[in-house]
Hints:
The structure holds two protein chains of two kinds. Chain A is an alpha+beta fold. Chain A has three domains: 3-120 and 350-381, no CATH class; 123-133 and 271-345, no CATH class; 137-270, no CATH class. Chain A contains six helices and 18 strands. The radius of gyration of chain A is 27 Å and the shape is globular. By secondary structure, chain B is an alpha+beta fold. Chain B is built from four helices and 13 strands. Chain B has helices at residues 4-23, 99-109, 117-123, 166-181; strands at residues 30-35, 46-48, 54-57, 62-65, 73-77, 86-93, 124-125, 128-129, 132-133, 135-140, 144-153, 156-165, 184-185. In chain B, the strands form three sheets. A seven-stranded antiparallel sheet of chain B has the order 4-5-6-12-11-10-7. Chain B has a three-stranded antiparallel sheet with strand order 2-3-13. Chain B has a two-stranded antiparallel ribbon with strand order 8-9. The radius of gyration of chain B is 27 Å and the shape is globular. At the A-B interface, helix 1, helix 4, strand 4, strand 5 and strand 8 of A face helix 1, strand 1 and helix 4 of B.
Amino acid sequence: MTLPIRSKLIKIAASLNLTVACLIVLMILVFAATLSQINLGIYFAKKTFFQTLWVYWEPQPHMKIPVFPGGLLVGWVLFVNLIVAHVTRFKWTFQKTGIWLTHVGLILLIAGSGLSSYLAKESQMAIQIGETKNYTTSAQEFELAIISEASPTTQQVISIPQSSINSHVKITPPSLPFTLVIKDFFSNSKLSMNKEGSSIATQGIGPQIAVDELPLDKHEGGVNTRTAYVEIFEGTHSKGIWLLSTGLGAPQTVVIGSKIYTLWLRPKRVYLPYTVTLLKFSHDVYPGTTIPKNFSSHVRVVNPVQKETRDFLIYMNNPLRYQGQTFYQASFGGNDTLSVLQVVQNPSWLVPYISCSMIFLGLLIHFMTMVVQRTQRKPHAHP
Amino acid sequence: MVEPLLLAKYTRFLGIGFFMLLGCQKAPIESYIIPKETPPALPAMMATAPSSKLRWTIPKEWTSQPATAMRLASFLINTHSREKCEVSVVSLSGEAGGILANVNRWRGQLQLDPVSESALNNSLSHPKLGSNIYTTTWLHNETKAILVAILKVQDETYFFKLVGNLSDVKDATPAFHMFLASITSRP
Lengths: 383, 187
C-alpha cells in the first residue's frame, strides 16, 4: 500500500506553504549574497549561495558543514512545487486563463534561471590594437592544456578542466601515451626564488622556484596563481616532476617517445570558429576632465567557414552579437592600447523575456477578466 | 485532480533530470584541434637583441625599453608596489673585469661591504636554465635587491641584471628564470 504515502508526498509537494517557504529562503539567500559581495566577488558569491545545493560553513580549512539550503536546491524544490501544484490543483476554465498563463510563465522563469546557470558561459577577450585572437579566456576558471602537433598547420589540445585538478589525483587523458599524477595543487600561491635542491620539482623551471600557498582570493578582480606539481609517467617509468603554474605565464615541454608535448596551466580558453582583430580602441573623456565619456572598440571579424569579413563598433550598451556570442565593452588598459571585451554565451537568453511576457500577459488577462466579471455583476448588486 | 500514478511518472522524470544536472557539474576532459599557435609569446612579446648573438622570449608582463649604447636591451616589469623594477642586458668583451670586481660594484650599489674571493665563491650558483649554464648571484639589503645571471658566449660575457625592490625582485624571479631559460644562440 504505497498509495497513501505517495498521496502524502504529492500533498506536501503541492503545498502553498512550501512555495512561501521557498520564496522566503530565496529572499534570505539574495540578501546574504548581496551582503557577502563586500568580501566575495560576484563569481564566488554565486558559487557560494546559488550554484550549490547547500550553503556551507567552513570552521576549518577543508571542513564544510551545510547550514542553509542553497539556490540550486531551493530552485529545484520550487520548480517541482509549482508544477505539482499546477497539475494537481488547477482546473482550467476560460476565466482562469490569465492565472494559468502567469503560473506557466513563473515556472518558465525559474526553469530559465536554472538553464542559464548551467548553460551560460562568460569569458573575456583582452586584445591589443592590431592583435588577432580566435579564443576567449575565463577570468576565474583554469585548465591544464597538453598541446602537441597534429599536422604541420594544426595542434591538438587536450584540456583537463579545473574540477579534475586536485592534490593526489591521477589523470589518464584519452589518446595520450602518458599519465599525470598531481602531487600537490595550490588554488592560490606565491612563486619566488628557491634554494637549489629544496623543490620536489625535478624538471623544467620548477627546481628554481619556491611555492608558498596562499588563501584563495575571492574578492572581485582578485587574481589567484594556481600552481601544481605534476609527475608524468610513461607506463610505469617516471619522467620527472614539473612545476606548472598560471604565474609562469609560459608553457613547458616534455618529450615522450619522439613527440614533444607542451604542458600549460593557464586560464581556461574557449576557441572560436572565427577570428577577432582589434583595429582601433577609443577612450573619450569629457572635455577638460579625466572622467570617461565613452569606450569603443572597432573590431574586424573574419569567419573562414562562412567566408565572411565584417567590421563592428562595440561600445557601451552596443555589444557585438555574433554566432551565439555577445561581446560587451568591459574594460581597457595598457595606456589605451588594450581593450577587454566580456564575452557571454547563453543559449537560454530568450527564456526570461518569454516568461516575463507570459506573466505580464497573464496578469493583464486576469485583471481584464475580473473587471468584466465585476461590471457584469454590478446591475444585480443594486436591483 | 490528476491520477497519482501519472504524477509519480512526472516526478520520476524530474528526479532523473535533477540528478543528471548534478552529474553535469564535473566537466569532462576535452580534445580539440586548433590552428598552430606561436606559444605564449604573442607577436609583441617576441624579441631579439639585433646586435647580440642571442635570441630570447620576453615574458608577458615585461615591457621593452629602447636599447642604449651600454645596454643591449632593457625591460620594465609591472609590479604590485608600482616601484621601478627592471631587467637589463649588457654585453662586454672578454672577462669584463672579472666577476669579483663586478659583484663588489653591485654590492656597493646596495650599500653592502665588498666581499673576498672565497666569500664570493660561496655566494655564486651555477644553474642550468634552458640550454645554458649561468653563473648567478643574489644580492640584497633590507629594501632593494639585485639578481644577476652571467653567461659567457664565445669571447663575450653577457650580464642579465634584475634590479628593484626586494619583494618585487622576488616576485619577478620566476619570470626572469623563464627569460634566461628561453635564451638561445642566434643561428
